[in-house]
Inverse folding.
């Protein structure tokens, strides 16, 4: 949800002996959390049920109407799973996003998803089309569950980036990303057609960040930074068909056509003139393909890093 602050100066009086201590538990069952970037969210857990899921929302529950609506969503979700004996993973995260019904401003819509850190996935209690993932529209030909899994994993890491207090880093998972970055650095140095969209200097900066996280992995800012990088690489695995037949191993490689077939996809006039012009059109055609990759990867990198 999007909120706005008053556009006028409002008087505020500080009473004597007032000590400003952050009160995380603002309402019964609710805890206020602040993202390192400054965004505020809230988490709710039923009293005496520490093993049960936690409910997250960025809706402003300090507004009584919004709080009541969120509580309705929580109770209905709890009743639904309880009446059907649906057992969710240990301390799963359920995220609610409130929206208004354009046809009826007095009504509201509650979107949700469930995040499971153990399996690194998000899921629903309803049937959902895979095209809800933004990355789905970047490529075509996605069919196996092992491929779609990368999109699901990327969304789980993005959830951890948005709600870093929901996830606890360990040395083992930090080392996992360290291994990914080590390979990326080597691939970028030794291959002129690496699919890694970062320079060696950028990757080394990430490695320095990981070295600091390894010493103190429990910080909220560290979890957010770690999760954002993991999200990027999981998204890249989806885009490059990682683990699938014909996975893209070089940035100028097509995932849909073999190299010899790409040659036949050239316009007829280019194929006709190529021998006369000493294959110069072939060179330009290949350079255009490479430029297309550079533009696409630059756009991708910007989308990933600037997306919120």
């Amino acid at each position: 949800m999007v909120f706005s602050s008053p556009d006028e100066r409002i008087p505020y009086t500080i009473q004597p002996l007032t000590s400003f201590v952050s009160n995380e538990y603002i309402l019964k069952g609710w805890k206020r959390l602040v993202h390192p970037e400054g965004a505020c969210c809230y988490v709710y857990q039923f009293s005496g049920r520490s093993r049960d899921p936690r409910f997250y929302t960025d809706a402003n529950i300090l507004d009584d109407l919004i709080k009541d609506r969120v509580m309705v969503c929580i109770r209905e979700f709890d009743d639904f799973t309880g009446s059907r004996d649906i057992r969710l993973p240990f301390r799963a995260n359920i995220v609610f996003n409130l929206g208004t019904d354009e046809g009826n401003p007095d009504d509201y819509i509650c979107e949700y998803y469930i995040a499971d850190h153990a399996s690194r996935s998000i899921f629903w209690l309803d049937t959902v089309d895979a095209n809800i993932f933004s990355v789905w529209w970047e490529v075509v030909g996605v069919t196996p569950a092992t491929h779609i899994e990368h999109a699901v994993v990327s969304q789980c890491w993005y959830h951890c980036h948005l709600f870093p207090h929901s996830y606890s880093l360990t040395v083992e998972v930090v080392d996992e990303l360290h291994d990914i970055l080590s390979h990326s650095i080597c691939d970028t140095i030794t291959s002129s057609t690496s699919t890694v969209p970062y320079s060696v200097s950028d990757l080394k900066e990430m490695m320095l960040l990981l070295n600091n996280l390894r010493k103190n992995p429990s910080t909220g800012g560290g979890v957010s930074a770690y999760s954002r990088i993991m999200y990027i690489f999981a998204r890249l695995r989806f885009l490059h068909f990682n683990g699938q037949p014909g996975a893209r191993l070089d940035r100028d490689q097509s995932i849909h056509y073999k190299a010899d077939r790409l040659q036949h996809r050239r316009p007829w006039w280019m194929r006709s003139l190529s021998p006369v012009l000493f294959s110069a059109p072939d060179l330009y055609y290949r350079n255009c393909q490479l430029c297309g990759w550079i533009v696409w990867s630059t756009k991708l990198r910007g989308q990933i890093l600037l997306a919120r």
Summary: Residues 280-306 form the longest helix (27 residues).
